[in-house]
Amino acid sequence: MIDKIDRKLLALLQQDCTLSLQALADAVNLTTTPCWKRLRRLEDEGVLRAKVALLDPEKLGLGLTAFVLIKTQQHSSDWYNRFTAEVANMPEVLGFWRMAGEYDYLLRVQVADMKRYDDFYKRLVNSVPGLSDVTSSFAMEQIKYTTALPIE
Q: How far apart are CA 31 and CA 25, in angstroms?
């Protein structure tokens, strides 16, 4: 069970995962050993999945964000397994969801430019047969982006 102290620790880590154990413990009024045990439990339970560095795509030359909506008439488990494995192995795909509603899948794709998107698109539509509609929208401006979950 996640309590108030766990939530505070998780909020702090979402802001800066490089905080020392001592800084985290001080922030939640614990000594380092019980703080470490809480963090370990949160990792073991899968609540705390990873500690990562967030990179700026623009500064890395990856300034084009595309949202790709996909419809298919294929819904067998064999097709699904093949399709999801293919898409999961495409490094440009940063997010991949199966949807309810008009479209079956949504991808968030990050590439350098329209040429690189076209290369990605061709690879996508040729990797697995059975896509009946692939529609792309391109982000003009990022207004908000966060990886922090609203846990407090």
A: 6
Closest to 73 (Cα-Cα) out of 129, 139, 4, 112? 129
Please give the distance of CA 2 from its chain centroid, rounded to a whole number.
Answer: 23
| Cα–Cα dist 141/89, whole Å | 27
Task: Decide if 109 contacts 94 (C-beta within 8 A).
Answer: yes
Give the model's pLDDT for residue 128.
85
What percent of the chain is modeled with pLDDT above 90?
95
Q: pLDDT tens across 63-102, in order?
A: 999 999 999 999 899 999 999 999 999 999 999 999 999 9
- Residues 29, 38: Cα–Cα separation, whole Å: 13
Q: Within 10 Å of residue 111's Cβ, how many Cβ atoms?
A: 21
Q: Name the pTM for this structure.
A: 0.88
How far apart CA 75 and CA 109 sit, in angstroms, is 23
How far is the C-alpha of 76 from the C-alpha of 146, rounded, in Å? 35
